[in-house]
Each structure stands twice: as structure tokens, then as C-alpha cells.
Amino acid sequence: MPLFFIVAALISILTTLGIVTTLVVDASKFFAVVPLGEIFSTNLAPLRAENPTFGFLPLLTGTLITSMIAMVVAVPIGLTAAIYLSEYASAKKKKWLKPIMELLAGVPTIVYGFFAYSFVTPLLMNLIPSLNAKNALSPGIVMGIMIIPMVSSLSEDAMESVPHVMREGSLALGTTRLETTLFVVIPSAISGIVASFILAISRAIGETMIVVIASGSSKNLTFDVTQSMQTMTAYIVEFTSGDAGSGTVGYYSLYAVGLLLFLFTLAMNLFAQYIARKYREEY
Known about the structure:
The mean pLDDT is about 85. The chain is built from 11 helices and 2 strands. Helix 1 (about 1-30) crosses helix 11 and helix 10 packs antiparallel against helix 11 (about 250-280). The protein has a two-stranded antiparallel sheet. By secondary structure, the protein is mainly α. It has a single domain, classed as MetI-like fold (Orthogonal Bundle), CATH 1.10.3720.10. It has helices at about 1-30, 55-90, 90-100, 110-125, 135-160, 165-170, 175-190, 190-205, 210-215, 230-245, 250-280, and strands spanning about 45, 55.
């Protein structure tokens, strides 16, 4: 049985090592042909017959812009929901409100993608006439809706871990419940709250189907959220549909983009763990 438990524990480690090895080995074949400096250029034309270019800066920009829009939506709504569930909702309300909110996390992402394209985009086009049918704003908003349960659930767990005696002491000094929440509970739970934000943005960065359906495939560098943008995950999906032949530079660019995406999410998760450890309050 100890051997069985060790093997079970090693499965996730070996899987991670296998993924990293695959990405590094195949991405090295791409970087052996394409100079490292070229990937930070703005010219991305991987399917051009002569002299294809692989400037990944438009992909990085598209990924970051859609993720930032998602966080602008998810952080205030998720944190407000967490405050209500932790500090204001009765046990009876919390019992049915929290599971209903967490149902959002169980909706398939492709459903979110069609929701963004067929409902949110037409709605926004009535408000913003210059909005393109494929744009960055719509999938960013829907990604924000998708990660609300992550922000609210993790933040609420962090606030629940704050001892009630601290709340009672604050209220005994004459503060209101809102003041207690803002100046006692949230500062005490800040490590868990910030970690939830970082994990949520990491989830948004790695999102695929929403941006594939609603964001488009424009490879031009732009900061206009009403225009089409392509993210790193959408680029991978586009090429794996058969546009790049196996063994070509374009094919190996998939692994280069995948490695960049892996490093992005890894850095975000490590930063979340650092924040959680540095600012954790133990009671």
C-alpha cells in the first residue's frame, strides 16, 4: 500500500514533467530557426508562403487585454459577493446562494463562447456602434462572468477564516458592520483574497473556447477592445485545425506559444503562493 500511495502521488509530478519536456524539446526546434528577438516583434504572418514571420507580441497583447477586461468584471462582483456571503448572508441564504453561484463554474466554456458571440456582442453593438462582430470586449466580459465563482468562493473562504472574535471586538468599539468588514476582515484575509485574484487571472489567461469563438483571429497589434484580437490559446487552436504541416516552423511555433503560456500561468501561480505565504495571518 505505501508503494501504491507513492505511485499515486508521483502521477501528477510525472505528468507535469512530461508536459514541460514536450514543450521545451519542440519549442527548442522553433527557436533554433527563429531568433528569440523576433517573437517580440509585431509582425505575425505564420502562414505566409515566403518569409513567414513569428512576432508573438499581438498574441501577448490580445491575451493580456482580454484577461484584464475579465478581471475588471470579476474582481468587484466576486469580492462583493464574497463580502455578502461571509458577513451579511444568514446561514439559510448562504446555503442556497453559494451553490447557485458556483454553478457558473460548471458551465462548459464553449457555451460561454456562444453566449458571448450570440448574445453579449449584439447587445454591446447596440451600445457601441463601432464594435466589430469579433472583438476583445465581449469575450473579456464573459470570461469575467466565468471566473466570478473562483474569486467569490476563494475570497469568501479567506474571510471566513478570520476569527469572529475580531469582528466582535471591532463592533464593540462602535464601528458599523461595513467598517468592520472593510478595515478588519478584509485586511486580515488579504493574502487569500489577492491569491484568488491571481489564480482567477491565471484561469482567464489560459481560457480557449470563449476567445476562439468571440474574439476572432486578427493578428494585428491593437489596443482597441472593439477590434478583433487573437490570444495565445486561439492561435494554438487555429494551427492545430490543420493549417500548419507537421514538422514545419509554423508547427513548432505552437509549442513555442504553448511554452510562453505555460510560463505565464506558472509565474502567476507562484506569485499567488508567494502572496499567500507573505501576508498570511495565522490565528
